């Protein structure tokens, strides 16, 4: 089975339909599947439900799907860096299901493990608990959270082989391994594609059994979410120490 595709558009061909749920790896702008999310935008599909820690920042990543009004609902834990996200939500144009970050991670992990639901203390007595089943264990209250399992998962990895085995680089691992397990079809974009067998099995983060399609995209774009600098006031401080020159 050939899992390698020539580009992001080809890798998604035949998978995209209106109204599907997409699991999107990444945290902020770190480890996001930028080429694949842009290809989703170009496809024109709409009424999407997207599960992601956040929706990128204005003009980058999933935010580009917000610009084209292709996302109907986001299931996320943080949206503070995206003005467009906030505008659409406050205007009633975008549905939002908030989840505490640890709960979101566990919902994704549970979905990938075939666990339909679980109980957690996180959110008890808050808005998060509204409408959810509550149960008591050993004198403590817990709320039930549903596992998440999508139609497609898009992930970004540093290295992959032709069998679909993936290696993530440092903090870009974040939500990607969990997302890769939690969908009917996982499509991975990788910076480096190597022959099967070249990656040390002990270094593999996502086994190829979870990955159905893969595309090589080259070096990742190194976006910075917030660049904070201050003018250098001490002439004794050398350039390159994190201060504006």
Outline the structure in words.
The protein is an alpha/beta fold. It has a single domain, classed as 3-Layer(aba) Sandwich (Glutaconate Coenzyme A-transferase), CATH 3.40.1080.10. The chain is built from 6 helices and 12 strands. The protein has helices spanning 8-12, 34-43, 63-67, 83-90, 101-112, 176-181; strands at residues 4-5, 21-24, 48-51, 71-76, 95-98, 117-120, 134-137, 140-146, 150-161, 166-167, 183-194, 213-216. The strands form 2 sheets. Strands 1, 2, 3, 4, 5, 9, 10, 11 and 12 form a 9-stranded mixed sheet that branches. The chain has a 3-stranded antiparallel sheet with strand order 6-8-7. A hairpin with a 4-residue loop joins strand 9 (150-161) and strand 10. The longest helix is centred in the middle third of the chain and has 12 residues, at 101-112. The chain is globular and about 55 Å long. The N and C termini lie far apart (54 Å). The model is unreliable at 241-245 (pLDDT under 50). Residues 225-245 are annotated as: Disordered. InterPro entries: 3-oxoacid_CoA-transf_A, CoA_trans_fam_I, NagB/RpiA_transferase-like.
Oligomeric state of the chains? Answer: single chain
The count of DSSP E runs of length 2 or more, i.e. the number of strands, is: 12
Strand content: 25-35%
In sequence order, what are the helices and strands, one letter per element? EHEHEHEHEHEEEEEHEE
CATH topology: Glutaconate Coenzyme A-transferase
Average pLDDT, to the nearest integer? 92
Region (Disordered): 225-245
Protein name: 3-oxoacid CoA-transferase subunit A
Biased composition (Basic and acidic residues): 225-234
GO molecular function, one term: succinyl-CoA:3-oxo-acid CoA-transferase activity
């Amino acid at each position: 089975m050939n899992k390698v595709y020539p580009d992001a558009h080809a890798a998604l061909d035949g998978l995209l339909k209106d109204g599907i749920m997409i699991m999107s790896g990444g945290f902020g702008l770190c480890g996001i599947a930028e080429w694949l999310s842009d290809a989703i935008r170009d496809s024109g599909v709409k009424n999407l439900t997207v599960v992601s820690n956040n929706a990128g920042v204005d003009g980058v990543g999933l935010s580009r799907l917000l610009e084209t009004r292709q996302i109907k609902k986001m299931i996320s834990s943080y949206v503070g860096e995206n003005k467009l996200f906030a505008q659409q939500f406050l205007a009633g144009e975008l549905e939002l299901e908030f989840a505490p970050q640890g709960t979101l991670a566990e919902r994704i992990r549970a979905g990938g493990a075939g666990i339909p639901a679980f109980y957690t203390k996180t959110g008890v007595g808050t808005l998060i608990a509204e409408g959810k089943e509550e149960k008591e264990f050993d004198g403590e209250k817990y709320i039930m959270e549903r596992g998440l399992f999508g139609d497609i998962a898009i992930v970004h990895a540093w290295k992959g082989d032709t069998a679909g085995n993936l290696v993530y680089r440092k903090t870009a691992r974040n939500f990607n391994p969990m997302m890769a397990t939690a969908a009917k079809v996982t499509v991975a974009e990788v910076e480096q594609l190597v022959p099967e067998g070249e990656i040390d099995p002990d270094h593999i983060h996502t086994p190829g059994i979870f990955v159905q399609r893969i595309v090589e995209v080259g070096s990742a774009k190194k976006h910075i979410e917030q660049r904070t600098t201050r003018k250098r006031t001490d002439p004794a401080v050398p350039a390159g120490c994190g201060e504006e020159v």
